Amino acid sequence: MPNVSNLVKTIQDIMRKDAGTYGDAQRLEQLGWMFFLKIFDDREKEMEVLRDNYKSPLPKHLRWSTWATDDEGITGDALLDFVNNTLLPKLKALTSGGDQITSLIRSVFEDANNYMKNGTLMRQVINKINGIDFNASDDRHLFGDIYEKLLKDLQSAGNAGEFYTPRAVTQFIVEQVDPRVGETILDPACGTGGFLVCAIEHLRKQAKTEAHERLIQECFSGIEKKHLPHVLCMTNLLLHGIDVPSNVRHDNTLARPLRDWGPKERVDVIVTNPPFGGMEEDGIESNYPAEFRTRETADLFLVLLMKILKPGGRAGLVLPDGTLFGEGVKTRIKEALLTECNLHTIVRLPNGVFNPYTGIRTNLLFFTKGAPTTNIWYYEHPYPPGAKSYNKGKPISIEEFAGERA
Questions:
Q1: Phi and psi (nearest 5°) for 116?
Q2: From 203's CA, which of 85, 90, 150, 295 has a CA 20 to 30 Å away?
Q3: What is the pLDDT of residue 377?
Q4: Average pLDDT, the chain
Q5: Domains of the chain: which residue ranges?
Q6: Among 262, 328, 257, 333, which residue's Cα sits nearest to residue 288?
Q7: In 268-286, which positions are buried (b, 16+ CB within 10 angstroms) versus exposed (e)?
Q8: Is 298:318 a contact under the CB 8 Å cutoff?
Q9: What residues in the chain have per-residue pLDDT under 70?
Q10: Does the domain spanning 4-136 belong to CATH 1.10.3720.10?
Q11: Tens-place pLDDT, residues 327-364
Q12: What's the rounded Cα separation, in Å, for the pair 187 and 133?
């Protein structure tokens, strides 16, 4: 059994030889849908064993096991022709007949592209992907770690940095907010699913019965605006044993008027790192009440969170300094937060946690809805001894949060 991390490295090396995939972001997008099909195919093989009458949502000729698993199978121009003119167009046009998993697959392929121009290299990549068995827990686990690393690599590819929150930060937030089995959990800007995956792992530690596992499959939801992170998020959830990750929507959370969010959609727990520094397109702010109108993404998300938490609901999120210490609309948003919610903890992170993506100073906010704020515990998170900053090789680690935890 070849080592999974070497395999993935080899795959990336093969792709670098192809003139069509000239950047990390494109390579990852390409790998995203290929891994998705392979993971889904392995999942289907398992279903066929477990269920007598299992019927695949995919027509036979589009299934990975039909066209991809034979090492000596179609290659070169024939393979390119199949992928470009049959596979992708047909997956984009799947008709669901109301079936969740079919519409899920269609949404994954909505904007998927094949960037590879050399069919022989593509066959080599496919053969390598076949070396990973996603039904073997070791392989799946290893791949989960590598996937995490791929997402990190994407961050340093530049434009895509908002997809990745350092693992230590998501883990610390989820542990402190402490979602319980039976509660509903939302990440309204879920990126590649870091918070959701972390919350699912947190809940699995509590699961005692099959009913618990069923609750875990259903209890979370996410919304992601961009296509690529949405696909990567679906794949991430499949990797973490979520059978039908259909509760993650490809949508702009903020494009919906605030008053349209009904009581039925309120949730117990929100964990998120909303995009910051971003400006929403014209007109988005008119979805929000006049006193909160702004085009600064992070501020609008904060207003939304206060609205969609249930009374007694808990939130943990990453926010830039500006939101807490700005003027005008920001002051009004902060006022609302302090009156409607108990903002009990602010952890101020040192510079560089999000390097190389942004040097903006960030805070972790923890609050509970339904009672006003009385005392705020404010903690300035120090660098580990001897360090002056974080970088790609030395990111923030979960051990560093021992102080706040205590």
A1: -70, 140
A2: 150
A3: 92
A4: 87
A5: 4-136, 160-405
A6: 257
A7: bbbbbbbbbeeebeeebbe
A8: no
A9: 1-2, 96-98, 153-163, 277, 355-357, 392
A10: no
A11: 889 999 999 999 999 999 999 998 888 766 677 788 99
A12: 30
pLDDT at 159: 52
Kindly state the percentage of the chain with pLDDT values over 90: 45
Paired tokens of 111: 């904007």
Q: Do domains 4-136 and 160-405 have the same CATH topology?
A: no
CA atoms within 13 A on the CB side of 275: 23
Q: What string of DSSP letters covers 128-194? A: HHTT--TTSHHHHHHHHHHHHHHHHHHHHTSTTGGG---HHHHHHHHHHH---TT--EEETT-TTSH
Contact in structure between 358 and 277 (CB atoms under 8 Å): yes
Give the 3-state secondary structure of residue 374.
coil
Edge-to-edge, what's the strand order for the sheet holding 185-187? 248-250, 220-224, 185-187, 267-272, 309-320, 362-369, 341-348, 377-380
Report which residue type is found at 40: F
Q: Domain 160-405 carries which CATH code?
A: 3.40.50.150
Sequence letter at residue 272: T
- The answer to whether the beta carbons of residues 198 and 178 sit under 8 Å apart is no
